[in-house]
Every structure is written in structure tokens, then in C-alpha cells.
Amino acid sequence: MATVQRVKYFKANLENKPGALLKIVSELKAKNLGLSGLWGFATQPGKAELYVVPKNPDKLRSLWSAAGLLADEGTAFWLKGTDRTGALTKSLEALAAVNVNIESIDAVAVSGRFGSFIWVSPAEIDKAAKALGAK
Fold it and tell me: Which single residue of 26, 65, 122, 132 could bond 4 by disulfide (Cβ 3.0 to 4.6 Å)?
């Protein structure tokens, strides 16, 4: 099975316009705040949601709270391992075996390694963590 870690994610609501994401990531770079993951989605005309998994959750929480950007935060799971056919299968089987529903997932493979973020309902975080053997 993959190496699994609990991580904090943070959500910001942005204007859906050119340069909005650049402004945010430039501020993160200026504050030396590294990320493990970043996703953005247009949600309706003129609106977008940005989700990030920071390497330093306390620092991002403080920064975004002060700037009025923090819309939500929660816990997800970060899976990492060797890229091979079926690399996520054991982790998905472990969640299914304890009847935990996945609310969202994404994955990417690069240079022989894969990474995946999995979100479950907040009520099922501890159950999922146990099933996945999360740190």
C-alpha cells in the first residue's frame, strides 16, 4: 500500500479572472510558504475556489486569515508511492472494506512516483486514517 499522511487543506474563494491565481501564489512565494498540492476550479461566472495543501498549515492559516482569504479548512489524505498499474487499488480497497465513501480524489504520476489526495467526510476521517494506516 502507499505511504499515507493526514494533511490539512485550505480553501479560498477568488475572483475568476486573469492574474488572480498568480497574485495568491506570488504572495505564498514571498512568504516562503511551500505547498504539497494546489487545485483551482471555476464555480460560477466570475467566481473560483482554490484549494491548497501547505507544508506549514499554521503559517498559511495565519496568512489567509489575516488577508480575509480563508474560507474553509479540513483534513485530507496524501498518498505517495511507486507508480505502477493499480498503485491505488489497496488503499481504495481498504476504504471500501470499512465502508468509507470517497468524496473527492485526484492523482498524478511523475518520474516513476505517484501522489494522490483523497477527501472523505469529516465524520469518517479517523475511520479512514485507521484503514489507510495514515501517520
Answer: 132
Where do the structural domains in the chain lie, given as residue ranges?
9-73, 75-132
Domain topology for 9-73: VC0802-like (3.30.2130)
pLDDT in tens, the chain (135 residues): 689 999 999 999 999 999 999 999 999 999 999 999 999 999 999 999 999 999 999 999 999 999 999 999 999 999 999 999 999 999 999 999 999 999 999 999 999 999 999 999 999 999 999 999 998
Distances (CA, A) of 54 to 17, 87, 91, 134: 23, 24, 23, 18
Rounded to whole angstroms, the Cα distance separating 65 from 68 reads: 5
